[in-house]
Structures are given as C-alpha cells and as structure tokens.
## 1
Amino acid sequence: MAAVKVTTVSGLAEDAPAEFDDVDGTDIVLVHTEGEIFAIGALCSHAEVPMVDGEVEDCSLECYMHGSMFDLRTGAPLSLPATEPIPVYPVTIDDDDVLVDVANPIPYKES
Ligand code: FES
C-alpha cells in the first residue's frame, strides 16, 4: 500500500501532537516540530498509553505516564522506563498534504 493522505500541514499546529486512527489500519500520532512532520505509533511501548497526550521537546515526544522520551526520527526510547522503540513511519509532504506510509515503517537501528 502506498502512502495515504492523513491531513494537511496547515492543519497541524506546531508542537501539538495529533492522533489519527485507522490510517490503513494503524493508529498514529503526527507531530509538527522544528520545520518537519513526524509520524509515530499512537501507543507508548512501555504500557500502551496514548502518546498524543505527551509533550514535544527537542525532536522527541515524552510519554505523559512515566516520562520516557522517544526520538521522533527513529522511535528510539531515550529514557527509562521504556526500553522498546515505537514504530515511526515515512512522511511525505505534497503541497499542503501530509502523506504517511504506514505499511513501510522506518527500519529501527539501535544507536
Ligand atoms: S507508559 Fe509510557 S513510559 Fe510508561
């Protein structure tokens, strides 16, 4: 399946995570920050709470429940208690449209 339109750039406020459910069967959160848009899975890898309620900081998203930070570029957990990544997905901007390819998550590389 190819990338599908999820929303528009102008519809995403800076540093305000927004959840979109059932994007080709996958729930995702989009984050518009530092001039880019990132797509990350909707649930924390630690205890499956909604990432949409987290804070954006330095290209990462903090889980509100226990405070783990996740890198929006890679999905990597940057702080405990989470130890597993959250999937991240390729985002393409076409004019004002935001397209996400949930069928092809960005391969995770441990740093
Ligand atoms: S539920 Fe996210 S860090 Fe615990």
Note: The two ends are 29 Å apart (CA to CA).
## 2
Amino acid sequence: MENSRAQELIKSLHNTDILSEEDSAYIVYDLDLVQTRYSELKDAFPADTLHGIAVKACPLPYFLKLQADRGLGAEAASIEEVQIALASGVPAERVIFDGPAKTRAEIQFCIDKSIYINIDSFEELERVNSLVGANTHFKAGLRINPQIGNGKIGDTSVAGKRSKFGVNLDDYMDRINKAFEDYSWLVGVHVHIGSQGMSVDDLVNGTSKVFEKTKNLTGLERFDLGGGLPVVNREDDLKVGFKTYTDALAKAMPELFSGKFKLLTEFGRRIYSDTAIAISNIEYVKEGHQIVAHLGADMFLRRAYKPNDWYHQMSVLTCNGEQVTNDSQTYSVAGPLCFGGDFLSREVSLPKVEEGDLLLIHDVGAYTLSMWSRHCSRFTPKVVGISGDNTYLLKKRESLEQLIQFWS
Ligand SMILES: Cc1ncc(COP(=O)(O)O)c(C=O)c1O
C-alpha cells in the first residue's frame, strides 16, 4: 500500500474511538482495495470460474463472509479451514479442500457434504475410492506436480523434481491416465506451482505443461490453476495483475479458456497482501539505533527466519499520524519476543524517530497474522478495516480469557 494511503487510513482512525491505549500494535485493512482486488480477479476470468481464495492467506471470518457475498469461494488446506469457511457462510459447493494429510473422517465429511477435494497422492486416491460408495454427487481433482523446477524461494516452491505435494507428471502419466479411466468421480486436475517465488513465466510454463498432457484425460471437467501470483515486496519486483496473468495463460493455452473446462483458482497473496498495514508504537529507541516494536517474529515468522526471502517495507509517522521529516539514519528493528533472532530488520534507513512514534509495516494482508506464533504468549492484535468514511472492527484484540483458553 502506498505510504500516503497508509497515512490517510491511520489519520482517519484517530478520529474514531476504535483504538484504545492498550492497542500498542494493530492491523488496518483498506476494505475498498479488497473489493477492488475481488473485482480484478473476477473480471480476469470467465464468469463461471470458481475462485477459492486461499484461507491460509487470510482466515478472518469477516473476509470469508465478504468472499461469500461476492460469489467467491475458499481454498482450505485443513479441515479446520473448511469448517471456518462453512461457518462464515461460504457454501459447500464453493469450498475446495486441498492438503496432503486428509484423514478418512475428513474425506468422509467432504463426500457427505459434496465438498470438492484435490487429492494429493495415489495413496489418497485409493482411500477416497474406498469411501465414495454409492455417492454420485461427490467430485474430486488430482494434484499434479509439473516438475518444472523450483523458483526463487525454496520453501514455497512446489514444482521441483520431487515435491511434497501432488503426483509427478513426468514419472506417472500412465498411472494418472488409469486413475481417470477407473474413477468416474475424478473429474479435475489441480496445479499449484509455488507461492511468491515463481514468475508469471514459471506459472504459465508449469500450468501449460500439465494442461497439454492432461486435457484429454477421461472425464476431465475441471482445471484448477492454484494460486501463486507474486506480489511486489521490493521496489524492483514486477507488479503483475490478474488480467496480465490470464492473458499470458490464454496465449499459451487458448483451449483452457474455450469453455470446455470449468476453471478453478486458489489465489491468496495477490488478493490480500497489499490491502493491509500493521502499525506498532515505537516503545523504545534503544541507544539511539535499535527500535523496539510490539510486533516481531510472532507475526512475521518468515521475515525473522528468512529475511532475504521475505521482505516488508517499513516507514514511520508521529503518534498523530504526521510525517516524520527528520533526516534518515540506520536502525535495527527488534520485536518484543524473548529470543535473539526476533528482528523485523537488522538494518533499515528511517527518518530519526523517538519513543511514541509509529512504525508502519507494509503489505501485511496475507500470510502474516495467519502465521502467528504463540512464543511469549502475547495477545494477537486488533484488526480494523476502513471503507470510505466507515471504520469496522474486523477482529478484537485477543483477551486474557482467550489466551488462557488457548493454553488450557
Ligand atoms: C495448494 C495451494 N493453493 C493456493 C495457495 C495460495 O497461494 P498464493 O497465496 O501464493 O496465491 C497455496 C499457497 O501456498 C497452496 O499451497
């Protein structure tokens, strides 16, 4: 999110009573930008596409409900995410259940509710087959690893020669063919290539490799493109919108958009990432060069452990939301946790700040709060949203009762 917009949002919060003194850190979503992202997604794909937005990116029931209201769905990586989505009003037919460790009970639940699942392995395929019985409503897809190689970020690349996920295209085409011949409920192919570290070319190459080899499978009705569209973390990252992506897909595979197949998508990061900022009071400026903030590795796990892969731009404002106009200097930004690696940045240039100023951490709308770590048991922060002149409480700051409940 642009600095000027972030400042505007923070200033407008100061005119409300939604924040209290105990909110030493909080998150603000630009709800108008979220709606714009939904529209961009829907406009870029055929109207009957099922968009299962990745719950793990942003699991707040507030957003799941918003997705449901806009005709969007949810991609769940666990049965718990399936349950949050259903409880938030996402209809069962718009839930996609992925994940490699589905139990028999979880699969049975999906069969009974006709929830679409993407099967991760040949072993799971057999398990599902043993449970389907006479059910004629249930449908499933098979996740296929295109084996095109890893991208820039090893931990979120899932298209190497061996991947944790899916069945290998190059190694098992015969078994894939046979599975579609054998099982009438197997109607879909699923490809997810990686999250953030893959370029659009990688995504298009991997998808078209799988599409070309699977488009004539017996009974194929659905093609699930997964997610993975990267966002701008650093200034020199390429900004890619959904339309640019679908244009590239359509150029490589016109048949994918011919109407012959129902398309499914599972984007997360590109929807939510830049729609939110996190704000922390600067509690101390230690010896003039170490900022001590109220968010650290608890919310920014990836950033703390793999700082080169996961970057967040930072900026500062005064406690009233005004620009800090001092000359810049180099700071480290430490979090509040009790271990030496708890840094948001070891070296960042910011205007000279003082205790009580605000630290802004940009682009935190996806995979930040949803990766919260309980180390040191700090309360999860309040989440607010702004749309036009209206301010909404999306999630309360955690209470002591909730925290004790978590550990009980
Ligand atoms: C199977 C699957 N689908 C969708 C996503 C969402 O990816 P992104 O948020 O990068 O769009 C992920 C993320 O890891 C995933 O594993």
Note: The pocket of pyridoxal-5'-phosphate is lined by residues 54, 57, 75, 98, 192, 195-196, 226-229, 266-270 (CB under 6 Å).
